[in-house]
Every structure is written in structure tokens, then in C-alpha cells.
Known about the structure:
Elements: E1 3-8, H1 16-31, E2 35-40, H2 46-57, H3 63-87, E3 92-95, E4 102-104, E5 113-116, H4 119-126, E6 130-134, E7 137-139, E8 146-148, H5 153-165, E9 169-174, E10 195-197, H6 198-206, H7 214-223, E11 227-231, E12 239-242, E13 258-262, E14 265-274, H8 279-289, E15 297-299, E16 308-316, H9 320-329, H10 331-334, E17 338-342, E18 345-351, H11 361-371, E19 378-382, E20 385-391, H12 395-405
Parallel strand pairs: 1-2, 1-9, 2-6, 3-6, 9-11, 10-12
Antiparallel strand pairs: 4-5, 7-8, 11-12, 13-18, 14-16, 14-17, 15-16, 18-20, 19-20
Amino acid sequence: MSLIVQKYGGSSVADAESIKRVAKRIVETRKAGNEVVVVVSAMGDTTDELMDLANKVVPQPSGRELDMLLTAGERIAMALLAMAIKSLGVDARSYTGSQAGMITDAQHGSARIVDVTPGRVRAAIDAGAVAIVAGFQGFNRGTGDITTLGRGGSDTTAVALAAALGASVCEIYTDVDGVFTTDPRMVPSARKIDRITSEEMLELAAAGAKVLYIRAVEYARRHGVTLHVRSSFNNNEGTLVVNPVDGESNVEEPLIAGVAADLSQAKITVVGVPDIPGKAAQIFTTVAGSGANIDMIVQNGSLALTGRTDISFTLPKTDGPATLAALESAKDDIGFETLQFDDQIGKLSLVGAGMRTNAGVSAKLFTALFEAGINIEMISTSEIRISVVTRADIIKQAVTVVHTAFDLDSNDGEAQVYGGTGR
């Protein structure tokens, strides 16, 4: 008997009929002889709606109370799903994150899992029941408060439970058939990937691919959890995300796994920085103090006449206001001239383990963008990734031409998107 953890996103449980459909799939898995643990997100756009409601009541809601509010969405979904499963003749028991043993730190809104003690979940499946766990939420022992894990928290909940319970696989159900070579909403000719390494998936997630969140992929990679990304709208095989076996050759792996686009970032340019030792350290110490996560950094050459340079970096748009305020307050100490903020950028990332052993990837990428008349503003690389920043309004064109240049287009027609959100 295999233990399978299944996670269903908001689009998979968006309404009553969707919940009934998901319940039938879970019951089929259970009747096939498997032990089943299910992690569920809030229905449809419930979390966003609750967030909007909170912001209408007060401009800056308390983190503690916001977590109490937002976790209501998953509790509703888990209870309804348990009811639907029971109506099909299979026992099901629903648990909140704290009841399921998801122990986190005390950071409201973006808590991290520090321990998993799934005693009640284990007892339920030992008794023959399907255990339904509310995703996205946990519990801090020190404060006694409910916490939330941030965006993608239900994926992380599922992976953490799979690791703690020794599950054979963690199935992540969404509204597309798996992981694609790029977002099929942006490029309908995107091709489904049958198997991808956790290393490549980690880079794609970090670069903006939305089908899996980076924290879940990172947790799965660290704990050796195999992920199976598939659609809840059919029974097709999806994409396996696996850790390569030590010594496994990548010779047969494709050169490029996929292309990701990210429109959630902005660029800050610190203009007229004195080109002397220590100034970059001052800038990024100030940025770190604002809580911002920096992605790409570019420093221009120093102008001989002025002895000054410009330093540009990208960060999440949501971190922009606080970072600009922190830098402005440190302007006299750092000695820069002005700040520029640009929230109309897009990042394109090309990812593939085959880059390690194949020359010419950069040349092909830059040639494809050049021939399409697309200007590049920033570049960064890792061993298996090349990222470039361009204008937000042409990012779709950029992804399309690069996808075609690397022969990633499917020959099987357009990809099917069932729910429309990817979650």
C-alpha cells in the first residue's frame, strides 16, 4: 500500500461541482489501495477576496488578525471536501494546519516550517480514513498563534507532509497538464515536460514560473520528495520533478528545459554613487535593512571626470516603496545623487541543465532577441540559467521568439488550460 499526498489548488476546488469532481478522484485513489492525505487551498479567489476585504476595513491590517482571517478560506474548503468524500462512502477527516502538526516560526504572513508532527494525520489514515489538511497555515508554539506560509503555502504544506509521512509521491494538482516549456497562457504552443530535475524546476520557479512555488520545490529537493504535477481535470500523466541519482548523466537531457517570464519585479537605479570602496556595501546593507530581496545587480563603469557610477538592481515591486524610503533616508551618508524607480520591466529566464556542456546558448538567445528588435537592459547568469531584463510590454513577444528559437514549440497543437489561473 502506497501513501500518496495530493494537493489541490484553488482553481481545482473553485465551486461545489469542482469539489465533487475532486472528491471522486480522491475516492478512486483510495479504492485503488492507497493511503491518501489531501492538502487543499482556499476555493477560487477566496484568499484575494479576503485580503481585499481586510484592506477595505483598515489600510494596514494586523499580521496576527490577517492570518486568522485568511486561514478561514482553507478551513471552508477542507470541510466541504471532507463532506463530499464521506457522501461517496469513504471516511474523511479534516484538519487545520495546527491540528495536522505544521509547526512554524512566529513570522505572520510568511512563516517558515520548523517542524512537522502529523500524529493525528497518521492516526486518521491508519484508521482507513482520508485525511484532509488545510494548506497555507501553521502554528507557532511560542506565541500560540495561527500563522500563514505566504504565497504557495499549500504546495509547501503538501511537500512537508509528504516528507514527514514518507509518502511515495506528492501529487500537485492544478489546471494545466503539468510543467510546460513556458506558460501556456502566454505561448499556446508550449510543450509539456514529462520529467524535469528539481534543480531545473528550482531555477524556473525562482525565475517566475507559477505552476510550482520555489519554497515547495526547495523543500522537496532537500528532503528527497518526488513531485508529480498534473491536472485535476483529467487523468493524464503530468510532469515528474525528481532529484537526479548521484552520478546520473545529463547527456540525454534536453539542452533547455524551459523559458520563464516574471512581471512582478521593478528596477531601482542609484544614480551618481561615489566610486570608492564601501559604497556598494552601504547601499545593499540599507536595502537589506528594508527587508527587500534583491535579484539582479548591474554597476556601470565609473565616469573619469566625475568619479561616480550608477548601480541598478531588481527586486519585487511590493518591496519598492520601503526600499526607496530607506535609501532616501541614507542619501547623505552614501552620497549618491538621485534614485530612479522603474516598475515596467519584465524578466525572461532560459533554464536548462544542458547549458553546462553545450556552447552557444547565450549567442542563440541574444541573436533571437536582436532579430526581434528587443533591447536587453540587464543580464545575469547561473550554471543552468540566463536571465535578461527588458520592457514589460514586450515580454510576451520575447518569450515567444526565444521559445521558438530553442525548438521548444509543441507539434501536438495548443496546450489546454482548464481553469485559467495556473493554481
